[in-house]
Amino acid sequence: MNDDEPRQTHFGFRDVAEDEKAGLVHGVFSRVASKYDVMNDLMSVGVHRLWKTAMMDWLAPRNGQLLLDVAGGTGDIAFRFLDRAPGARVTVCDMTESMLVEGRRRAEAGRLEGRLDWVTGDAMALPFADASFDRYTISFGIRNVTRIPQALAEAFRVLRPGGRLMVLEFSQLPVPAMQWAYDRYSFNVIPPLGQMVAGDRDSYQYLVESIRRFPDQETFAGMIRDAGFDRVRFRNLSMGIAALHSGWKL
């Protein structure tokens, strides 16, 4: 590639120019916003709720903490955090305004008014000052970022010393036969389900493909370390269908 050619990245299984991906991802989540939570329940048979509970158990929210939840438009993580720490405050940041609109519509949003802020922003260029937050979470969002190392660097920047990063993301099963079976389910069930429930097969085809392009657990842990985080650990959920990664800014 010469210097004049655009850098390439992936959008699902397609190769696209880096400057195109954000718009393509924005289009996906704009289309699925109104059915996003329903589809999460259907696609995971409700197990995503257990994964998020495991995330909160490990994160251990505390009163007085300031959480930044990135790509958290519908508020699921924010609401769970504030349920456990009523004296905390959460900023939800998402690049897709329609996802934030769905979050604000939820009943919990009204009940938590005054402890919850909604901000449109890009994970790779967060609109917040250095050392602004105690905790940073991103749930099923980091695989959609164009440059993951840049997003991790931004997470490190906005966290205070002693702050903690936690990522919940789909991952890789360690047993090839189990991965094969899971792939058959994902590619043959989820896109048709997206068509039936949300009227959008293509967006869910992308979401399935994006999971397969995401690094495995050890590789992603290495990326977190490269961003400057210490005490990086991960825990597999449902045998590795998803994984939690934790890191500290020390």
What tags apply to this protein structure?
9 strands, 10 helices, globular, 7-stranded mixed sheet, about 250 residues, alpha/beta
Topology:
Elements (H helix, E strand, L loop, with lengths): L7 E4 L2 E4 H15 L3 H9 L2 H13 L6 E5 L5 H9 L4 E6 L2 H9 L1 H5 L4 E5 L12 E7 L8 H11 E12 L5 H23 L2 H13 L3 H10 L3 E8 L4 E7 L2
Parallel strand pairs: 3-4, 3-6, 4-5, 6-7
Antiparallel strand pairs: 1-2, 7-9, 8-9
Q: What is the gist of this entry?
A:
The protein is α/β, with parallel strands linked by helices and 250 residues long. The chain has 10 helices and 9 strands.
Number of strands: 9
Give, in spatial order, the strands making up the sheet with the most strands.
5-4-3-6-7-9-8
Q: What's the helix-strand series?
A: EEHHHEHEHHEEHEHHHEE
Shape: globular
Structural class: alpha/beta
Distance separating the two termini? 38 Å
Radius of gyration: 17 Å
Give the amount of beta strand, in percent: 15-25%
- Could you list the spans in which at least 5 consecutive residues all have pLDDT below 50? none
* Major sheet summary line: 7 strands, mixed
Integer average pLDDT: 88
Helix content: 40-55%
Number of helices: 10
Commentary on this structure:
There is one protein chain. The protein has 250 residues and is of the alpha/beta class. Helix content is 47%, strand content 23%. The chain is built from ten helices and nine strands. It has helices at 18-32, 36-44, 47-59, 76-84, 97-105, 107-111, 148-158, 176-198, 201-213, 217-226, and strands at 8-11, 14-17, 66-70, 89-94, 116-120, 133-139, 159-170, 230-237, 242-248. The protein has a seven-stranded mixed β-sheet, with helices on both faces. Strand 8 (230-237) and strand 9 form a beta hairpin. Helix 8 (176-198) runs antiparallel to helix 9. It is globular and about 45 Å long. The mean pLDDT is 88.
